[in-house]
Amino acid sequence: MSKLLDSVSAIPNAHEPAPGLITSGQPSEQQLRDFAAAGGKVVLDIRDPMEVRPFDEPALARELGLEYINVPVSAGAASEEKLDRILAAVREHRDQPMLFHCGSANRVGGALLPWFILDQKMDADAATEAAMQVGLRSPEFLAWGMDYAGSHG
Question: At what angle do helices 124-134 and 106-114 cross, to 10 degrees?
């Protein structure tokens, strides 16, 4: 287990699908502090700002010196434009330790499906399995990621 993953291993669905890319459900305040202390640099949060949160994550991230990026994704509002923004953030920060999360990692799994296929060159079955390991459970977010990969591949 990497130092980064170890720092957040108690977050639901914490996983490291690629070196330096940690995926998970919602971190706690202490888990975000632990991620920063372990060398984390970027937080990509795809929760809608209107979702109930246990603390002011953007403010804490700034306090800890982390770059905080929010691309809100919710059921029924998952768009190609949002995947463009998410994938651009993952690609742009590929050399910086990142915590990529939503509430449970379900949306994160769907968002990473096209990254697994287009960037990591996985076939659809392997990408789907990798996304499910991350936390993908929803047919809606599975279709969102697969449709994007199919139209951009």
Answer: 150
Model pLDDT for residues 32-65, shown as the tens digit of each residue: 999 999 999 999 999 998 898 889 999 999 999 9
Domain of 99 in residue numbering reads as 3-152
**pLDDT tens readout for residues 96-116:** 999 999 999 999 999 999 999
- Alpha helices (H) along the chain: 3-7, 29-37, 57-63, 80-92, 106-114, 124-134, 139-152
pTM above the 0.90 mark? yes
Indicate the number of domains in the chain. Answer: 1
Instruction: Return the DSSP state at 95.
Output: T
Nearest-angstrom CA–CA distance, 96 and 66? 11
Residue 50 belongs to a domain with what CATH number? 3.90.190.10
Using DSSP bridges, classify how beta strands 21-24 and 42-45 pair: parallel, antiparallel or unpaired: unpaired
Give the rounded distance of the alpha carbon of 46 from its chain centre. Answer: 7
Q: For residue 78, what pLDDT is reported?
A: 87
